[in-house]
């Protein structure tokens, strides 16, 4: 009961933040503003149709009418897209990600808190299979956030669902995360509270993005340590860093310094 209220409060807060910044990608709002026009075709400068939702709303920011990329989506340079093959319609990708509520890098990490990991992994595999189907004969641009989120999700599948890749030496981490799952489930609300404002990873200021990135990691670590112990917290932070990095446009250094947390397991063992 209280958890669902906290989630609802969080969602309302997200919506308020959305109104404030008016550039977050929170799917329903995104559709409302931009309609179902493929993100990729906005990039190629194709004919732009006013979104079905409300032509009055977004038009102020669409100077000139032909540039309808939301902030953070501007085409870098003026590379010719015709040479690089057909651009994907990314709406099928968005729809698949929405099945898992993967709307941000943090939401990939949050999949660790799903009640049943195996069931969740089946759905993740299915989502990735559908995305593969929708993107086999075309390409997503490098700076397509849904392409990035897909990369992060693939990483989740290989590192959590498929036992961790042999080469990356992450088998131990995978085993740790699976072992800690009973506790990580309980960490769900805390993990949601650790999330940054919806559009944080789209900001242009790398310093700020990477600061936020590390704040989120430290929050996972601190909350994780208090509830699940230091070892689980370390693995959670490490996995969150690796998966979120893959889901972001900017590349960030992970801070070497861990926040100081007294191991609650040790405290309870000695008292
Ligand atoms: C980027 O963000 C940092 C930290 O918030 C700030 O100190 C800096 O002035 C910002 N740089 C630019 C170019 O806005």
UniProtKB/TrEMBL annotation:
Keywords: Signal
This protein's record includes keyword Signal: yes
Region described as Disordered: 45-71
Residues spanning the signal sequence: 1-24
Keyword Signal (UniProt): yes
Domain of life: Eukaryota
Protein name: Secreted protein
Organism annotation: Drosophila rubida
Source taxonomy: Eukaryota, Metazoa, Ecdysozoa, Arthropoda, Hexapoda
